[in-house]
Amino acid sequence: MKISVVVPVFNVERSLLLACFKSLKRQSLTSDDYEVIVVDDFSNAPETLSVLQAHESTDRFSVVRHTENLGLNESRRSGVRAASGDFVVFVDGDDMLTRDGLELLRMEAHRTGADVVTSGFQRWNPISKKLLIAPFFGIPFPNDLTERLTVLFRCDRSFTMCGRLFR
Question: How high is the pLDDT of residue 161?
Fold first, then answer.
């Protein structure tokens, strides 16, 4: 089960992009078990471009370049089209994975046979300068519209594509 990690990038701050790439290089899976597809959505910040250029010729990373800014969703689609893995994980250019992040997601997919595997995550709070654990619930989203809105505004569910493994 090979995993394709899709990283959409548009003018991401250098230090954050380097930290993201470092976390992807240091995964506990072997290099044959995953690939990293970086989608440059027509970045024009020199600091972003220099990081992308440095990673363009590495064996595990490949860079797909857009000739115009198409946005996050189209960048993810471009990454999926370039993917060769059995599973896809989306990681934004300012995100980081734990060293065993991909391995744990893959193990859970293998154990359960699930088409989608999700996990908890932490968010950086720039005001408090601390990592906060984002709530993770394995329960379905409510059917009732009022309940859905209540859950949405309470931030009881995460709607991010990142950190989820998709078959």
Answer: 78
- Alpha-carbon torsion angle 50, 52, 55, 61, nearest 10: 180
Taking alpha carbons only, the member of 132, 142, 6, 138 closest to residue 74 is 6
Q: Quote the tokens at residue 57.
A: 């010729």
* Residues 21, 25, 31, 34, CA torsion sign: negative
Amino acid (one-letter) located at 144: D
pTM for this prediction: 0.83
Tell me the mean pLDDT in the region 154-167.
Answer: 74
Helix (H, G, I), strand (E, B) or coil at 5: strand
Find, among 84, 115, 83, 122, the residue nearest to 101 by Cα.
Answer: 122
The token pair that represents 136 in the structure block:
């993770």
**62 close to 37: Cβ distance less than 8 angstroms:** yes
Report the percentage of the chain scoring pLDDT > 90.
61
